[in-house]
Design goal:
The complex is a heterodimer. The two termini of chain A are 40 Å apart. Chain A has three domains: 76 residues, no CATH class; 166 residues; 199 residues, Rossmann fold (3-Layer(aba) Sandwich). Chain A is globular and about 75 Å long. In chain A, the strands form four sheets. Chain A has a seven-stranded mixed sheet, sandwiched between helices. The longest helix of chain A has 26 residues. Chain A is an alpha/beta fold. In chain A, helix 3 packs antiparallel against helix 4, helix 6 packs across helix 7 and helix 12 runs parallel beside helix 14. In chain A, 46% of the residues are buried. Chain B is 54% helix and 8% strand. The radius of gyration of chain B is 17 Å and the shape is rod-shaped. Classes of the chains: A alpha/beta, B mainly alpha. Chains A and B meet through helix 4, helix 7, strand 10 and helix 8 of A and strand 1 and helix 1 of B.
Chain lengths: 469, 59
């Protein structure tokens, strides 16, 4: 039983009754059930925990001494306080290499576990989180003592990692969004209908996706017949430690063999065609840096439409945890590889016209982007024309959404007459009478107070620093 | 290769799926041959020729 006053079970943590997450006084804690004693002790005593933490595979934690101050329950064995994750992100917000690295991390940890006489009891992609551009496994209660049986997480691994990666490799990188539709992994039977025939030429995909899907379909029927005949237990094969390591190796080689499908994107080389010359661009950088310092964000900066992270990195360089959001899978993937190892920069995929909603059980298993904020400072540079002209969203609605995402806002107004806006208007009727500076300020004034307004030299654009009312 | 003698139902909170468990054991059996070759036979010859064994995790 949780202490209702200070402790609440996290809405995403209900699948495993023996290991779950609670929030307590602003911190996320992990509860280890008494029946998990043997598994937890083995994790800690076998050297697995120390090795996994030192290899930066597993989140480190300390044990809370006074359990009853958090939960009054005889069934609780330990309460762990893990290193806190600055912002939770989800697989459908990760680029190809982020998901690939999360998959490899899971397999490396599984291999290490098997070598220490343990295994992972699941393979959910949600067990991996990013601290900046570094993946880390967060579910300390996923470990259990190994037996000579097939790996329980195999199907989940294929559906959470292999299938989305294959879809991004063989179909389109924008299919990173698929796990948003299928919260517990993209089903194999869907994948085999969507993937092109040439995906079968990859031996790993042929086995772990195509053959796997066939086996599933065949045994589902057989299983139903088995139960109809009154038999309760289905026989499954034994798997030695060596065979388990061989499967891990095979999965690892399959994941390694995948690379993102090449695509032409609008944004990949955006700055090459930009409206500024180099000098003006560096002027803008100086102005943005000045405004960031004035906004003084303590914990977090979100940069919407971050592209290659040029402006986001001004904040992250100043040791502020920065999330660089962009719609373009290529840009985010490039960013992730560029900032790999940086603990303050997290590139994420986000379509602002349809941002991550609350999904899952009770619509609260995975939080919406708004529920994960607000950030101390939101940046929206060279973005407003894409939203208000490209996607027809009126200024008041943009201002409202932005006020839900950031306590402060640095926003760039790009007026008509700017070549980027003119390009957007060149193929359509100009129905945007209200797209002007005056209406822009009026709309944003409803939610924000304008703290500073500054023209960007040698351009028609204006930068604003605003504070939420 | 695969020894069909363990019963389903001993697993933890996640249902592994019968078809998944069976294909995994079959793939595991085949993969073990290549795995054995890569890790043991290659290591044996590497030792003979004095070359250090390449860690597959760091490729």
């Amino acid at each position: 039983m949780t202490d209702q006053n200070t402790t609440q079970r996290h809405s995403s943590s209900f699948r495993d009754p023996e290991g779950y997450v609670v929030s307590h006084k602003g911190k996320i804690l992990r509860v280890v059930g008494r029946s998990e004693k043997e598994n937890y002790d083995k994790l800690m005593d076998s050297g697995l925990y120390d090795k996994a933490v030192s290899k930066k595979l597993l989140v480190n934690h300390k044990e809370i001494k006074d359990i009853s101050s958090v939960i009054k329950d005889q069934k609780v064995y330990k309460i762990l306080e893990p290193s806190q994750i600055p912002i939770i992100s989800y697989p459908y917000e990760w680029s190809f290499d982020q998901l690939k690295d999360a998959a490899l991390l899971t397999l490396d940890l599984l291999k290490l576990a098997v070598e220490h006489g343990m295994t992972l009891k699941d393979a959910s992609a949600y067990n991996v989180q990013f601290v900046g551009s570094n993946p880390i496994f967060i579910d300390t209660t996923s470990f259990e003592i190994r037996e000579d049986t097939p790996w329980v997480g195999y199907k989940q691994f294929c559906e959470h990692f292999l299938v989305p990666l294959s879809l991004m490799k063989y179909n389109d990188q924008y299919l990173h969004r698929m796990p948003r539709l299928f919260i517990d992994g993209v089903p194999l039977h869907v994948a085999v209908k969507v993937l092109p025939a040439r995906a079968r030429l990859n031996a790993g995909i042929a086995q772990h996706v195509f053959l796997h899907a066939r086996s599933q379909a065949r045994h589902q029927k057989a299983g139903a017949k088995h139960i109809e005949q009154g038999k309760k237990l289905v026989k499954v094969p034994k798997m030695s430690k060596f065979q388990q390591l061989a499967i891990i190796d095979s999965l690892r080689r399959t994941v390694k063999s995948l690379s993102p499908r090449k695509m032409e994107t609008e944004w990949g080389d955006y700055y090459d065609f930009t409206n500024y010359n180099r000098k003006s661009f560096s002027e803008k950088q100086k102005l943005v840096e000045k405004l960031i310092k004035k906004a003084n964000p303590k914990k977090s900066v979100w940069d919407f439409g971050a592209n290659n992270g040029e402006f986001s990195s001004i904040a992250s360089r100043n040791n502020i945890y920065t999330v660089a959001f962009d719609i373009d899978p290529n840009a985010v993937n490039k960013n992730y590889n560029q900032f790999k190892g940086d603990e303050n920069m997290l590139p994420l995929l986000l379509d602002l016209t349809n941002p991550s909603p609350s999904i899952g059980w009770g619509l609260e298993e995975r939080a919406s982007i708004i529920d994960r904020g607000p950030s101390d400072l939101l940046m929206a540079l060279a973005l407003i024309h894409h939203i208000s002209i490209g996607n027809n969203v009126p200024f008041p609605q943009v201002a409202k959404f932005f006020s839900e995402c950031g306590k402060n806002l640095i926003i760039e107004f790009v007026p008509k007459g700017d070549s980027k806006v003119d390009t957007l208007l060149s193929t359509r009727k100009d129905i945007f009478d209200n797209y002007n500076e005056e209406d822009f300020e009026k709309a944003f004034n409803q939610y924000f107070k304008i703290v500073e307004k500054v023209k960007i030299p040698k351009s028609k654009r204006t930068l604003y620093l605003m504070r939420r009312k | 290769m695969a020894n069909f003698s363990v019963i389903l139902g001993i697993f933890s909170y996640l249902d592994p799926g019968t078809g998944s468990a069976i294909i995994q054991a079959l793939i595991g059996g085949v993969a073990a041959v290549g795995f054995f070759f890569r890790h043991h036979v290659r290591a044996f010859f590497a030792k003979l020729t004095g070359k250090s064994k390449k860690d597959d995790n760091e490729d």
